[in-house]
Amino acid sequence: MLITIKYFGQIAEVTAKQEEQIEIEETSISKLLELLYSKYDGLKSKDFQIAQNQELVSLEGEITGAEIAILPPFAGG
Question: Are 3 and 24 in contact (CB under 8 A)?
């Protein structure tokens, strides 16, 4: 499955990318994170949320869409 991952804010700084496409066999969000942690070690120390097709998802969720966004914490106000 080919997915597009978009990185925002401090997450984009860690990956040095704003977007990339990855071919994955696993379809779970947690397996995707394992792959990203192995690729970008600095990601492990960051807080973030994950959105799939513009909706927040949990780590236990399955990848069902072609677009994943890694979002830094939101500031309230």
Answer: yes
Report residue 6: phi and psi, to 5°.
-110, 135
Residues 23-50 have pLDDT tens digits of 988 789 999 999 999 999 999 999 999 9
Only one residue has tokens 């401090």, namely 10
What local confidence, expressed as pLDDT, does residue 38 receive? 96
CATH number reported for the structural domain that contains residue 21 in this entry: 3.10.20.30
Residue 3 CB contacts under 8 Å (≥ 6 apart), including other chains: 21, 22, 24, 32, 63, 65, 66, 67, 68
Q: What is the pTM of this model?
A: 0.88
When divided into structural domains, the chain yields a total of 1
The verdict on residue 26 lying in a domain is yes
